[in-house]
Amino acid sequence: MQELLQWVEACEADAIDEEDVIRFDHGDRTFAIYRTAKGSYYATDGYCTHEKFHLSEGLVMGTIIECPKHNGRFDYTTGAAKRTPVCVDLRTYPVKLEHNKVFIQI
């Protein structure tokens, strides 16, 4: 059976500073919502794949998020693991902007 996808309002667009990340909780899931220096938005699972630490507390450098626990890195635009100790990619989610609100498809 195929899972039903839905667009969920995550935040106001200006709630995220450029080159930053915020946490978004929906139901029993946690997501990380990112904004690039050019104003594009991205979303990933909210926990590091290494030890389930909140990525929203990490450091954003360009399109890289660094986990605050062990400094593993991911490219948040693709979810690709970029530096050990992380070796499992992050799941990413489609994002759209409507009426100054950020929506993610989950």
UniProtKB/TrEMBL annotation:
Alphabetically, the GO molecular function entries are:
2 iron, 2 sulfur cluster binding; metal ion binding; monooxygenase activity; oxidoreductase activity, acting on paired donors, with incorporation or reduction of molecular oxygen
What's the domain of life for this entry?
A: Bacteria
* SUPFAM superfamilies, sorted: ISP domain (SSF50022)
Q: Which residues form the Rieske domain?
A: 7-104
Q: Which Gene3D superfamilies match?
A: Rieske [2Fe-2S] iron-sulphur domain
Cofactors, names only: [2Fe-2S] cluster
Q: Which residues form a coiled coil?
A: none
Query: Entry's PROSITE patterns?
Result: RIESKE
Q: One Pfam family, short name please? A: Rieske
InterPro entries referenced in this protein's UniProt entry, alphabetically:
MocE_2FeS, Rieske_2Fe-2S, Rieske_2Fe-2S_sf
**Which keywords does this chain's UniProt record carry?**
2Fe-2S, Iron, Iron-sulfur, Metal-binding
Matching entries from PANTHER family are given as: FERREDOXIN-RELATED, RIESKE DOMAIN-CONTAINING PROTEIN
**NCBIfam families associated with the record:** MocE_fam_FeS
Q: Which family does it belong to?
A: Belongs to the bacterial ring-hydroxylating dioxygenase ferredoxin component family.
Report the protein name in the record. Answer: Rieske family ferredoxin
